[in-house]
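Structure ticket #2291
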Amino acid sequence: MAIDNQATKVITGKVRLSYCNIFEARADDQGVEKYSTAILIPKSDKDTLRKIKAAVDAAKELGKSKWGGKIPANCKTPLRDGDEERPDDEVYAGHYFLNATSKNKPGIAKPIGKSADGKTKFQEITDTTEVYSGCYAKVSLNFYPFDAKGNRGVAAGLNNVVKVQDGDFLGGRSNVNDDFAEEDFDVDLDGDDDDFMN
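Resolution: structure written out below.
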């Protein structure tokens, strides 16, 4: 059964990024340099979840040729339940999540308007502080079968990331306004800094 690449590709709805390492590759457990992010998908986003299930199923069919002609009983799949696996993390509550990786740097952009033919125009994001753990994005993924050291299953490949909305930082980083809004600073806030060096 021939399956084209479109069957294993998914463009998500609005998801939240976590453990976001998409500007610089980091070494994984095997020492392979990869770009990666966790993607939190609201359980209410039935459309994205349906598309991921269909793409995972298509990748399993592709995997039969790697796995001796059949899908293994213990076939690992990338989508996990945040309520079950991260019960103490309120960020993961009400979400499924998956980890997506790539050896190649993903495209990173933001929408900036529409062209004359009605298609969305994008601007590349190069500022590494603009896309971070906690922001919201739409993500292009491809699902593929793997067979590594006895582990067989389907993994998520990271293609492109389009940031759509800011969000609270994840991973312990606090907001400067939250930290210091109530603090009293002995500084001239009217912009008169002539005697700064005196």
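Closing remark: The chain has a mean pLDDT of 89.
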